[in-house]
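Handoff note, outgoing to incoming analyst
You'll be picking up this chain. Sequence as last confirmed:
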Amino acid sequence: MYLRAFLFFAFVSTAAAQGSGTALDALKLIPKDAAKRLARIEAREGTPSPERWYLLVHDPAEPRGVREFVVAGGKFLTSRTLSQFADTLMPADIIGADTVKVDSAHVGKLAAAFAEANGAKVGMLNYELMRDAATNAPAWKVTVLDAAGDQLGVLAVNATRGAVLSAEGFEKSPAVELLAPPTGIAAAGAARPVGKAARPTPAPPPKPNVLKRIFGGGKNPKPEQ
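Most recent structure output, in case you need it:
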């Protein structure tokens, strides 16, 4: 069990160190003026890094306000004025690349920690970053899947400070030291274990109980290429 988590942590750390496909790596490949108008990031089936990152920005020159940049394999692929992830984007949707201090690699580590705490193994990760309605701050939402594509749980993480906001579907939380924000992010607050209910602030750990089998749901469809 511990070996599984160690191997996944090592995989995430290696990907981040090599710059081989994290969200912040992808952001560096789009025009700076576009990055300032970042509204959303999407990716599917990361192991932990996905094949493609979809970076959505508000484009005031477009009637729907949408421009999507696609990055794959550490290279810029294309930009287009439509997206399967958003029909329209407004100025209020803008979060800006400067507010995103927490990379997808850190979110992947948290996902592995929660899976390990619940006796499960991460197969794939689906990433989403956008403005959180409750806090009005940018937040990551990562859907954690097993190797068969069935959902284990969903984590929400503040993308500026690194605090875990919620951990739906996970009965148990990992050790508090595993929830610490990335090195270099100041004033993130003390990381605390969270319960199953979604909350805008960190919550105390849930009471111990018998781990239920939570594998369920269908496989997530792949986004259009």
